[in-house]
UniProtKB/TrEMBL annotation:
<dbReference type="GO" id="GO:0016747">
    <property type="term" value="F:acyltransferase activity, transferring groups other than amino-acyl groups"/>
</dbReference>
<keyword id="KW-0012">Acyltransferase</keyword>
<dbReference type="InterPro" id="IPR016181">
    <property type="entry name" value="Acyl_CoA_acyltransferase"/>
</dbReference>
<protein>
    <submittedName>
        <fullName>N-acetyltransferase</fullName>
    </submittedName>
</protein>
<dbReference type="InterPro" id="IPR000182">
    <property type="entry name" value="GNAT_dom"/>
</dbReference>
<feature type="domain" description="N-acetyltransferase">
    <location>
        <begin position="23"/>
        <end position="172"/>
    </location>
</feature>
<keyword id="KW-0808">Transferase</keyword>
<dbReference type="Pfam" id="PF00583">
    <property type="entry name" value="Acetyltransf_1"/>
</dbReference>
<dbReference type="InterPro" id="IPR050832">
    <property type="entry name" value="Bact_Acetyltransf"/>
</dbReference>
Amino acid sequence: MTTRTTRSWTVAAEAHDSPAATALWRAYYTEVSDRWYRLHEGRATDPAELERGIAAESGDDLAPPGGVLLVARYGGEPGGTAGVRLRTGGTGRVEGELKRVFVREELRGRGGGAALLAAAEEAARALGAVRLVLDTRHDLVEARALYARHGYVETEPHNDDVYAEHWFAKDL
């Protein structure tokens, strides 16, 4: 995959266990976990539970040959991620599943999400996917708006993830 560069963002494939990818995974997981607990239980995530959750998802499914993790850098500093992993869809077509789409809070509104989505779509095509699917939660309003702006449409559920409340797809 080639490196994709926008005005201030550079997005490139990186090992899912690199220091930058690991730090961004921690930031992503902390934010979505805290948002869920604050909404449903009025508290932040318990630190021990946070560590278990972070450790439970190795990211191995975002490694070649069946996946890729993209790291976006803003001004050279790690600012976001998007992962793609291959799966066989309900129609038997090869699909990419979008995972870990995240831009650090202080960098939001600067085009990082759009840069990551464009790079993820390119990576999915390179992996042989003809469609991208994803799931997200109701409280992740910004994410749902981003996907809709970039041509993703709400679909029927494609998984039974306990936290998934909205499912999207886009033909590539």
